[in-house]
Amino acid sequence: MAYAPSSKYKKKEKAALTLNSMMDMMTIILLFLIKSMSTSGAMVRPSQYLELPEGARKVEPEKKLAILISPNGVMEDMESTPRVISPANELDNASNVILPGLEAFLTNQKAFDEKAGIPFNGIVTIQCDKSVPYDWLLKVINTCGQSEYDVIDFVILKQSS
Amino acid sequence: MLKKINLPSKRREGGEKPPEPDLTPIMSLMVVLIPVLLQVAQLSDIALLEYKPPAEAADDSGGGGGGDDEENTDEEKNLKLDLLVNLHEDGVIQVSMYNKLDLGEHFFEIPAAPNGNYNFRILNDSLYSIKTREVGEPTGIDSVLNEETQKYETFKTYRVEDGRQVKITALGKTPFQSIVDIMDVCRFKLGDESKELFPLTELRQFQ
Protein backbone atom coordinates (compact mmCIF):
# COMPACT_ATOMS: atom_id res chain seq x y z
CA MET A 1 0.00 0.00 0.00
CA ALA A 2 1.36 3.40 -1.04
CA TYR A 3 1.50 6.12 1.53
CA ALA A 4 0.77 9.78 0.75
CA PRO A 5 3.93 11.85 1.06
CA SER A 6 4.22 13.73 4.25
CA SER A 7 3.25 17.40 4.01
CA LYS A 8 6.57 18.21 5.56
CA TYR A 9 8.35 17.25 2.33
CA LYS A 10 5.90 18.84 -0.11
CA LYS A 11 7.43 21.55 -2.28
CA LYS A 12 6.11 24.97 -1.36
CA GLU A 13 5.68 27.07 -4.57
CA LYS A 14 6.02 30.82 -4.30
CA ALA A 15 2.99 32.78 -5.53
CA ALA A 16 4.59 35.05 -8.13
CA LEU A 17 2.66 37.88 -9.77
CA THR A 18 2.44 37.34 -13.54
CA LEU A 19 3.08 40.69 -15.21
CA ASN A 20 2.96 39.50 -18.80
CA SER A 21 -0.73 40.15 -19.41
CA MET A 22 -0.50 43.47 -17.60
CA MET A 23 2.45 44.42 -19.83
CA ASP A 24 0.45 43.57 -22.95
CA MET A 25 -2.41 45.77 -21.81
CA MET A 26 -0.10 48.66 -20.92
CA THR A 27 1.68 48.41 -24.27
CA ILE A 28 -1.64 48.63 -26.14
CA ILE A 29 -2.75 51.67 -24.12
CA LEU A 30 0.63 53.32 -24.59
CA LEU A 31 0.59 52.81 -28.35
CA PHE A 32 -2.99 54.11 -28.59
CA LEU A 33 -2.12 57.25 -26.62
CA ILE A 34 1.01 57.94 -28.66
CA LYS A 35 -1.01 57.49 -31.85
CA SER A 36 -3.76 59.86 -30.72
CA MET A 37 -1.10 62.39 -29.73
CA SER A 38 0.58 62.29 -33.10
CA THR A 39 -2.71 62.83 -34.95
CA SER A 40 -3.75 65.84 -32.86
CA GLY A 41 -1.05 68.02 -34.42
CA ALA A 42 1.10 70.36 -32.45
CA MET A 43 0.32 70.72 -28.80
CA VAL A 44 -2.31 73.31 -28.07
CA ARG A 45 -3.24 73.21 -24.44
CA PRO A 46 -6.04 75.29 -23.01
CA SER A 47 -4.51 77.96 -20.82
CA GLN A 48 -5.26 77.86 -17.13
CA TYR A 49 -5.47 81.66 -17.05
CA LEU A 50 -8.72 81.94 -18.98
CA GLU A 51 -12.02 80.26 -19.77
CA LEU A 52 -12.45 79.32 -23.43
CA PRO A 53 -15.80 79.74 -25.20
CA GLU A 54 -17.72 76.78 -26.61
CA GLY A 55 -18.30 76.41 -30.32
CA ALA A 56 -19.59 73.98 -32.91
CA ARG A 57 -16.40 73.82 -35.00
CA LYS A 58 -14.42 70.58 -35.06
CA VAL A 59 -11.21 71.62 -36.82
CA GLU A 60 -8.20 70.11 -35.07
CA PRO A 61 -5.99 72.71 -33.42
CA GLU A 62 -2.56 73.45 -34.76
CA LYS A 63 -0.30 75.76 -32.84
CA LYS A 64 1.28 78.69 -34.62
CA LEU A 65 2.29 81.94 -32.98
CA ALA A 66 0.12 81.85 -29.87
CA ILE A 67 -1.24 84.62 -27.70
CA LEU A 68 -3.82 84.79 -24.92
CA ILE A 69 -6.52 87.42 -24.37
CA SER A 70 -7.66 87.35 -20.78
CA PRO A 71 -9.48 89.97 -18.68
CA ASN A 72 -5.97 91.07 -17.60
CA GLY A 73 -4.89 91.92 -21.13
CA VAL A 74 -3.04 90.30 -24.02
CA MET A 75 -0.39 87.82 -22.94
CA GLU A 76 2.20 85.57 -24.48
CA ASP A 77 1.10 81.93 -24.39
CA MET A 78 3.38 80.34 -21.81
CA GLU A 79 2.94 77.43 -19.45
CA SER A 80 3.58 79.42 -16.29
CA THR A 81 3.32 83.13 -15.52
CA PRO A 82 2.65 84.38 -19.05
CA ARG A 83 4.24 87.70 -19.93
CA VAL A 84 1.76 90.56 -20.41
CA ILE A 85 2.16 92.07 -23.88
CA SER A 86 -0.64 94.63 -23.73
CA PRO A 87 -2.17 95.32 -20.30
CA ALA A 88 -5.89 95.88 -19.74
CA ASN A 89 -5.53 99.68 -19.57
CA GLU A 90 -3.97 99.69 -23.03
CA LEU A 91 -6.98 97.76 -24.35
CA ASP A 92 -9.45 100.01 -22.50
CA ASN A 93 -7.88 103.16 -23.92
CA ALA A 94 -10.38 104.35 -26.54
CA SER A 95 -7.70 106.17 -28.54
CA ASN A 96 -5.76 102.93 -29.09
CA VAL A 97 -7.02 101.39 -32.33
CA ILE A 98 -3.72 99.53 -32.68
CA LEU A 99 -2.18 98.11 -29.52
CA PRO A 100 1.47 99.26 -29.28
CA GLY A 101 2.60 96.39 -27.03
CA LEU A 102 1.09 93.69 -29.23
CA GLU A 103 2.32 95.35 -32.41
CA ALA A 104 5.90 95.40 -31.07
CA PHE A 105 5.62 91.76 -30.02
CA LEU A 106 4.34 90.65 -33.44
CA THR A 107 6.98 92.65 -35.29
CA ASN A 108 9.74 91.15 -33.11
CA GLN A 109 8.34 87.69 -33.60
CA LYS A 110 8.24 88.11 -37.37
CA ALA A 111 11.82 89.39 -37.43
CA PHE A 112 12.94 86.51 -35.20
CA ASP A 113 11.29 83.95 -37.50
CA GLU A 114 12.91 85.52 -40.54
CA LYS A 115 16.32 85.34 -38.85
CA ALA A 116 15.75 81.72 -37.94
CA GLY A 117 14.74 80.93 -41.52
CA ILE A 118 11.16 80.02 -40.59
CA PRO A 119 8.83 80.91 -43.48
CA PHE A 120 6.27 83.53 -42.53
CA ASN A 121 2.70 82.24 -42.78
CA GLY A 122 0.76 85.14 -41.22
CA ILE A 123 -1.24 82.90 -38.88
CA VAL A 124 -1.76 83.60 -35.21
CA THR A 125 -3.50 81.29 -32.74
CA ILE A 126 -5.50 83.12 -30.09
CA GLN A 127 -6.93 81.74 -26.88
CA CYS A 128 -9.50 84.31 -25.85
CA ASP A 129 -11.51 84.29 -22.64
CA LYS A 130 -15.24 83.98 -23.29
CA SER A 131 -15.97 87.14 -21.30
CA VAL A 132 -13.56 89.36 -23.23
CA PRO A 133 -15.49 92.31 -24.73
CA TYR A 134 -15.88 92.72 -28.48
CA ASP A 135 -13.99 96.03 -28.68
CA TRP A 136 -10.88 94.38 -27.15
CA LEU A 137 -11.16 91.63 -29.73
CA LEU A 138 -11.42 94.10 -32.61
CA LYS A 139 -8.33 95.94 -31.39
CA VAL A 140 -6.35 92.69 -31.30
CA ILE A 141 -7.61 91.70 -34.78
CA ASN A 142 -6.73 95.15 -36.16
CA THR A 143 -3.25 94.99 -34.64
CA CYS A 144 -2.66 91.49 -36.03
CA GLY A 145 -3.80 92.65 -39.48
CA GLN A 146 -1.54 95.70 -39.25
CA SER A 147 1.41 93.38 -38.55
CA GLU A 148 0.50 91.20 -41.55
CA TYR A 149 -0.97 88.38 -39.47
CA ASP A 150 -4.12 88.06 -41.58
CA VAL A 151 -5.38 84.66 -40.47
CA ILE A 152 -6.52 84.24 -36.89
CA ASP A 153 -7.33 80.87 -35.39
CA PHE A 154 -9.42 81.11 -32.23
CA VAL A 155 -9.13 78.17 -29.86
CA ILE A 156 -12.54 77.03 -28.66
CA LEU A 157 -13.94 74.14 -26.68
CA LYS A 158 -15.93 71.64 -28.71
CA GLN A 159 -19.60 71.99 -27.88
CA SER A 160 -20.96 68.96 -26.03
CA SER A 161 -23.76 67.68 -28.27
CA MET B 1 11.64 -6.36 -33.77
CA LEU B 2 11.16 -2.97 -32.30
CA LYS B 3 13.86 -1.49 -30.19
CA LYS B 4 12.77 0.01 -26.91
CA ILE B 5 13.67 3.70 -26.57
CA ASN B 6 14.45 4.99 -23.17
CA LEU B 7 12.78 8.35 -22.58
CA PRO B 8 14.17 10.70 -19.92
CA SER B 9 12.32 10.55 -16.70
CA LYS B 10 9.56 13.08 -16.20
CA ARG B 11 11.11 14.23 -12.95
CA ARG B 12 14.34 15.22 -14.68
CA GLU B 13 12.60 16.93 -17.65
CA GLY B 14 10.80 19.57 -15.61
CA GLY B 15 13.84 20.45 -13.63
CA GLU B 16 15.15 23.67 -15.22
CA LYS B 17 13.01 26.54 -16.53
CA PRO B 18 14.42 29.60 -18.38
CA PRO B 19 14.56 32.59 -16.03
CA GLU B 20 11.75 35.12 -16.53
CA PRO B 21 12.82 38.71 -17.25
CA ASP B 22 12.15 41.17 -14.48
CA LEU B 23 9.36 43.37 -15.87
CA THR B 24 8.86 45.48 -12.77
CA PRO B 25 10.96 48.51 -13.92
CA ILE B 26 9.21 48.56 -17.32
CA MET B 27 5.88 48.41 -15.54
CA SER B 28 6.87 51.33 -13.34
CA LEU B 29 7.81 53.33 -16.44
CA MET B 30 4.45 52.59 -18.04
CA VAL B 31 2.60 53.54 -14.89
CA VAL B 32 4.25 56.96 -15.12
CA LEU B 33 3.92 57.37 -18.90
CA ILE B 34 0.25 56.51 -19.20
CA PRO B 35 -1.11 59.20 -16.83
CA VAL B 36 1.12 61.78 -18.52
CA LEU B 37 -0.18 60.84 -21.96
CA LEU B 38 -3.76 60.70 -20.72
CA GLN B 39 -3.42 64.25 -19.47
CA VAL B 40 -2.16 65.36 -22.87
CA ALA B 41 -4.95 63.44 -24.62
CA GLN B 42 -7.50 65.94 -23.21
CA LEU B 43 -6.55 68.04 -26.24
CA SER B 44 -9.26 66.37 -28.23
CA ASP B 45 -11.78 68.65 -26.48
CA ILE B 46 -10.50 71.76 -28.22
CA ALA B 47 -10.94 72.94 -31.77
CA LEU B 48 -10.12 75.90 -33.95
CA LEU B 49 -12.44 78.59 -35.22
CA GLU B 50 -10.70 80.09 -38.25
CA TYR B 51 -11.18 83.76 -38.86
CA LYS B 52 -9.92 85.05 -42.15
CA PRO B 53 -11.51 88.34 -43.07
CA PRO B 54 -12.32 88.44 -46.79
CA ALA B 55 -10.00 90.73 -48.73
CA GLU B 56 -11.52 94.12 -49.43
CA ALA B 57 -12.51 94.44 -53.05
CA ALA B 58 -10.18 96.89 -54.72
CA ASP B 59 -13.03 98.34 -56.68
CA ASP B 60 -15.29 98.80 -53.66
CA SER B 61 -15.81 102.48 -54.37
CA GLY B 62 -16.63 101.75 -57.96
CA GLY B 63 -13.91 101.68 -60.56
CA GLY B 64 -13.88 103.51 -63.83
CA GLY B 65 -13.17 102.35 -67.31
CA GLY B 66 -14.82 99.66 -69.33
CA GLY B 67 -16.80 99.95 -72.54
CA ASP B 68 -20.57 100.40 -72.80
CA ASP B 69 -21.09 96.79 -73.86
CA GLU B 70 -19.36 95.50 -70.80
CA GLU B 71 -21.30 97.69 -68.36
CA ASN B 72 -24.27 95.38 -67.96
CA THR B 73 -22.20 92.26 -67.43
CA ASP B 74 -19.96 94.13 -64.96
CA GLU B 75 -23.02 95.26 -63.05
CA GLU B 76 -24.24 91.68 -62.79
CA LYS B 77 -20.83 90.51 -61.66
CA ASN B 78 -20.53 93.22 -59.03
CA LEU B 79 -23.99 92.66 -57.60
CA LYS B 80 -23.43 92.57 -53.85
CA LEU B 81 -25.66 91.31 -51.09
CA ASP B 82 -23.87 93.25 -48.33
CA LEU B 83 -25.33 91.07 -45.62
CA LEU B 84 -24.88 92.64 -42.21
CA VAL B 85 -25.83 91.23 -38.80
CA ASN B 86 -25.93 93.68 -35.88
CA LEU B 87 -25.96 92.36 -32.31
CA HIS B 88 -27.65 94.70 -29.84
CA GLU B 89 -27.11 94.58 -26.11
CA ASP B 90 -30.79 93.97 -25.34
CA GLY B 91 -30.85 90.68 -27.28
CA VAL B 92 -32.20 92.17 -30.51
CA ILE B 93 -30.52 91.17 -33.77
CA GLN B 94 -30.76 93.39 -36.85
CA VAL B 95 -30.27 91.90 -40.30
CA SER B 96 -29.62 94.14 -43.28
CA MET B 97 -29.07 93.46 -46.98
CA TYR B 98 -28.08 95.71 -49.89
CA ASN B 99 -27.16 98.44 -47.34
CA LYS B 100 -30.86 99.03 -46.58
CA LEU B 101 -31.72 100.66 -43.25
CA ASP B 102 -35.50 101.05 -43.58
CA LEU B 103 -37.59 98.34 -41.99
CA GLY B 104 -38.84 96.01 -44.70
CA GLU B 105 -37.87 92.95 -46.68
CA HIS B 106 -34.18 93.85 -46.72
CA PHE B 107 -33.84 95.15 -43.19
CA PHE B 108 -35.53 93.48 -40.24
CA GLU B 109 -35.12 92.85 -36.53
CA ILE B 110 -35.22 89.58 -34.63
CA PRO B 111 -36.51 90.10 -31.07
CA ALA B 112 -34.74 88.57 -28.08
CA ALA B 113 -35.63 85.07 -26.93
CA PRO B 114 -37.96 84.81 -23.89
CA ASN B 115 -34.90 84.35 -21.64
CA GLY B 116 -33.41 87.61 -22.91
CA ASN B 117 -30.65 85.99 -24.98
CA TYR B 118 -30.12 86.34 -28.71
CA ASN B 119 -32.53 84.21 -30.69
CA PHE B 120 -29.98 82.36 -32.79
CA ARG B 121 -32.46 79.75 -34.00
CA ILE B 122 -34.62 82.36 -35.74
CA LEU B 123 -31.51 84.10 -37.07
CA ASN B 124 -30.31 80.81 -38.56
CA ASP B 125 -33.69 80.24 -40.23
CA SER B 126 -33.66 83.82 -41.58
CA LEU B 127 -30.15 83.40 -42.96
CA TYR B 128 -31.17 80.16 -44.62
CA SER B 129 -34.11 81.85 -46.30
CA ILE B 130 -31.83 84.74 -47.42
CA LYS B 131 -29.40 82.23 -48.85
CA THR B 132 -32.09 80.44 -50.83
CA ARG B 133 -34.03 83.58 -51.86
CA GLU B 134 -31.35 86.23 -52.49
CA VAL B 135 -28.24 84.16 -53.23
CA GLY B 136 -29.83 81.16 -54.89
CA GLU B 137 -28.16 78.10 -56.31
CA PRO B 138 -24.41 78.13 -57.07
CA THR B 139 -23.55 79.34 -60.55
CA GLY B 140 -20.19 77.62 -60.70
CA ILE B 141 -17.08 76.50 -58.87
CA ASP B 142 -13.91 78.52 -58.46
CA SER B 143 -10.61 77.68 -56.85
CA VAL B 144 -7.93 79.63 -55.04
CA LEU B 145 -4.40 78.66 -54.05
CA ASN B 146 -3.89 78.32 -50.31
CA GLU B 147 -0.44 79.79 -49.80
CA GLU B 148 0.10 77.88 -46.59
CA THR B 149 -0.71 74.39 -47.81
CA GLN B 150 0.13 75.14 -51.48
CA LYS B 151 -3.08 73.39 -52.46
CA TYR B 152 -6.01 74.70 -54.45
CA GLU B 153 -9.21 75.13 -52.45
CA THR B 154 -12.44 75.06 -54.36
CA PHE B 155 -15.56 77.01 -53.43
CA LYS B 156 -18.95 77.69 -54.94
CA THR B 157 -19.68 80.93 -56.74
CA TYR B 158 -23.07 82.62 -56.72
CA ARG B 159 -25.13 85.18 -58.59
CA VAL B 160 -24.04 87.77 -56.03
CA GLU B 161 -20.32 88.39 -55.58
CA ASP B 162 -20.40 88.06 -51.78
CA GLY B 163 -22.73 85.06 -51.60
CA ARG B 164 -20.65 83.43 -48.88
CA GLN B 165 -19.90 86.50 -46.78
CA VAL B 166 -21.51 88.13 -43.78
CA LYS B 167 -20.42 91.16 -41.80
CA ILE B 168 -20.98 90.98 -38.05
CA THR B 169 -21.06 93.98 -35.79
CA ALA B 170 -21.75 94.17 -32.09
CA LEU B 171 -21.63 96.61 -29.24
CA GLY B 172 -18.26 96.97 -27.53
CA LYS B 173 -19.34 95.12 -24.40
CA THR B 174 -20.62 92.03 -26.21
CA PRO B 175 -18.77 89.00 -24.79
CA PHE B 176 -16.60 86.83 -27.04
CA GLN B 177 -18.88 83.81 -26.42
CA SER B 178 -21.73 85.57 -28.26
CA ILE B 179 -19.41 86.32 -31.17
CA VAL B 180 -18.39 82.65 -31.40
CA ASP B 181 -22.07 81.64 -31.26
CA ILE B 182 -23.06 83.97 -34.08
CA MET B 183 -20.10 82.91 -36.23
CA ASP B 184 -21.27 79.32 -35.83
CA VAL B 185 -24.88 80.23 -36.64
CA CYS B 186 -23.83 82.08 -39.81
CA ARG B 187 -21.72 79.22 -41.16
CA PHE B 188 -24.19 76.37 -41.62
CA LYS B 189 -27.86 75.56 -41.22
CA LEU B 190 -28.32 74.28 -37.70
CA GLY B 191 -28.61 70.52 -37.64
CA ASP B 192 -27.50 70.13 -41.26
CA GLU B 193 -23.87 71.04 -41.90
CA SER B 194 -24.18 70.11 -45.57
CA LYS B 195 -26.17 73.31 -46.12
CA GLU B 196 -23.61 76.08 -46.18
CA LEU B 197 -24.85 79.59 -45.38
CA PHE B 198 -22.27 82.37 -45.02
CA PRO B 199 -18.98 80.85 -43.82
CA LEU B 200 -16.81 83.94 -44.48
CA THR B 201 -17.43 86.19 -41.52
CA GLU B 202 -16.04 89.65 -41.12
CA LEU B 203 -16.04 91.30 -37.70
CA ARG B 204 -16.63 95.03 -37.80
CA GLN B 205 -17.08 98.01 -35.52
CA PHE B 206 -20.70 98.71 -34.52
CA GLN B 207 -22.08 101.65 -36.49
Could you state the order of secondary-structure elements of chain B as H and E? HHEHEEEHEEEHEEE
Distance between the termini of chain A: 77 Å
Shape of chain A: elongated
Task: Describe the strand arrangement of the main beta sheet of chain B, using strand numbers.
Answer: 4-3-2-7-10
Mean pLDDT of chain A: 83
Major sheet size, sense and barrel closure of chain B: 5 strands, mixed
Name the structural class of chain A. alpha/beta
Helix fraction of chain A, binned, reads 25-40%
Round the Cα radius of gyration of chain B to an integer and report it: 32 Å
Low-confidence stretches of chain A: none
Beta content of chain B comes to 15-25%
Assembly state (oligomeric)? heterodimer
Count of DSSP helices of chain B? Answer: 5
DSSP, total strands of chain A: 6
Q: Structural class of chain B, please?
A: alpha/beta
As residue ranges, the low-confidence spans of chain B are 57-72
Q: How many strands of chain B?
A: 10
Summary?
Chain A has a domain at 54-158: Nucleotidyltransferase, domain 5. Chain A contains four helices and six strands; from the N terminus they run H-E-E-E-E-H-H-E-H-E. Chain A has helices at residues 20-39, 88-92, 100-116, 134-146, and strands at residues 54-55, 65-70, 73-76, 84-87, 123-128, 151-158.
